[in-house]
Amino acid sequence: MTPGTLVLLHEPNATAAAWGDLPEMLRSYGLDVIAPDVPDDTGPRYIARVSLTITATDPAPPLALAAHGTAGPLLPGIALAQRAAHRPIAGYVFIDADLPRPLRHDHESPQNDVPMPPDWPEAPCGYLRTHSDRTASSDHDQAVREARLRGWPVTEHEPPTAVAQSLSELLMEL
Predict the structure, then answer these.
(1) Between helices 75-84 and 43-57, what is the axis angle to 10°?
(2) Number of domains in the chain
(3) Per-residue H/E/C for 84-108
(4) CATH number at residue 28
(5) Which InterPro entries match (predicted)?
């Protein structure tokens, strides 16, 4: 799949600078890339701010949404906002990311949980494991296992290959 625009979503409470030179490297592969900068919001506020930024950039559809870390569970909400704005979603990529979970209705649910649309995912999904975050490796190992069980393509990035190349190749698989 070749998206019209690839949207790189950093973790909540981080900045787009966390992507480093990845957006530019992806552009060198011919991809249209935007990396919204939403430094201090989480949950529904993050979704709203990202959606406003995407709208302001007037991206070429369809969109591929790529999320890092704790932005992963927010992908269904971001996708719902994009679909409401008549921007189709071509695919989802989780980059060392947590996977979305159905909203729990108990007192242990995090405050930032957001509802998952019943038809999610309505587009292909993939998982990119970069091995760059050793501290959360067991969580990422679990996410990789779940992605494989769901039949999603999984790429385990191995240096010295550029992360941009691994991500670009995974997008082509979707």
Answers:
(1) 40
(2) 1
(3) HCCCCEEEEEEECCCCCCCCCCCCC
(4) 3.40.50.1820
(5) AB_hydrolase_fold
> What digits encode the pLDDT tens for the residues 61-89?
999 999 999 999 999 999 999 999 999 99
Using one digit for the tens of pLDDT, what is the confidence trace for 18-40? 999 999 999 999 999 999 999 87
Structure tokens of 32? 């249209």
What are the angstrom distances between the C-alpha of 27 and each of 15, 33, 60, 82, 144? 19, 6, 14, 22, 27
The answer to whether 115 and 103 are in contact (CB under 8 A) is yes
CA distances from 15 to 32, 89, 101, 167 (A): 20, 23, 24, 20
Split at pLDDT 50, 70, 90, the class of 162 is confident
Q: Which two tokens stand for residue 59?
A: 């991206």
Question: For residue 21, what are the domain limits?
Answer: 5-104+111-173
